[in-house]
């Protein structure tokens, strides 16, 4: 199968691959690499590949991606990382970007930046709150629960360890800007409700955050964890049409249970205040952003962005199993699997959110292949509420 061939080629030639060709979690650099996955201290890894894959949220994906890492002694996990992508999906989405990552580029500081253009002929909108669109029957292509969105944007972030490369404390500052064009269908939930943000427009955000990172490896951790507090502020002074702010709290923790099992846990709470446009209801802040509730970055098995609101909380629990490893072009490739349980819910002002125990679960299992910084994941997940299942093929651990 072409997809399988592409995955093996990616593992053989690039430490990370589409969609970002950089660490998928945006995780912090580590002070040392793990014994199981030694770092590459010099040389070059590069790849140019067609994109051929499938995702239940987006449909079939096609296009191209190119990515490269340049390694050098004293630069962890690499000296320069760059990626460029042109991506189209069978459901009318486009996602094109250019991304750069330079650990220790400016003294001890890490510079990250991204330019991108996104277009969605059918971007999901089910209304606000934890029990929205109760008559939804699972057909994601209904015009009633979609709108057309265009959103060019860019962001830049400067991250560093003010107390030394071996200290777990990190801080960062950054700025992002995006212009969101909104085109609702005539008989849609969006056209009927006309929430804040219905007119679209620019959103500029100032971002800042702190992390405490004790992971042994940023791309495929076995032990340790990372805690993060992130802030984002938008207003006229930042080039935004809307005045709002957000706070994100995140905890990621990893425990090694014997030589082959790892228990991984992530908890995320995101709170938005002020005049929040509806297209921000589904987004979280922080170094590693997520969408939801619902989709491959928050609660797998539930339709993408199925539940949205000013307050989002979700939990992801994974039991990872390293079944066996083999050598490929001088570096070990680890093959294994995962079983997981995801759980999430939202709260939104002036709408019914259901009882306190109304959380939305997803359960599933998957396969993993990892080589140095590259991790390929294939997941099957099911919503225990609706009984509907979904497939995800992606690169990098979920967290």
> What class, by secondary structure content?
mainly beta
The average pLDDT is 88
How would you write the strand order of the largest sheet? 1-2-3-4-5-6-7-8-9-10-11-12-13-14-15-16
> How many strand elements?
16
Largest sheet: 16 strands, antiparallel
User: In which range does the helix fraction lie?
Assistant: under 10%
H/E element sequence: HEEEEEEEHEEEEEEEEE
The amount of beta strand, in percent, is over 45%
Overall morphology: globular
Can you tell me about this structure?
The chain is mainly beta and 399 residues long. The chain has a single domain (2-395), classed as membrane protein fhac: a member of the omp85/tpsb transporter family (Porin), CATH 2.40.160.50. 4% of the residues lie in helices and 53% in strands. The chain has helices spanning 2-13, 189-193; strands at residues 43-55, 59-71, 80-89, 93-106, 109-124, 146-160, 169-184, 201-213, 224-234, 244-257, 261-274, 311-328, 331-347, 360-371, 374-383, 389-395. The chain has a 16-stranded antiparallel β-sheet with strand order 1-2-3-4-5-6-7-8-9-10-11-12-13-14-15-16. A hairpin with a 5-residue loop joins β15 and β16 (389-395). The longest helix has 12 residues, at 2-13. The chain is globular and about 60 Å long. The chain starts with a helix and ends with a strand. 44% of the residues are buried. Mean pLDDT is 88; it is low at 1-38.
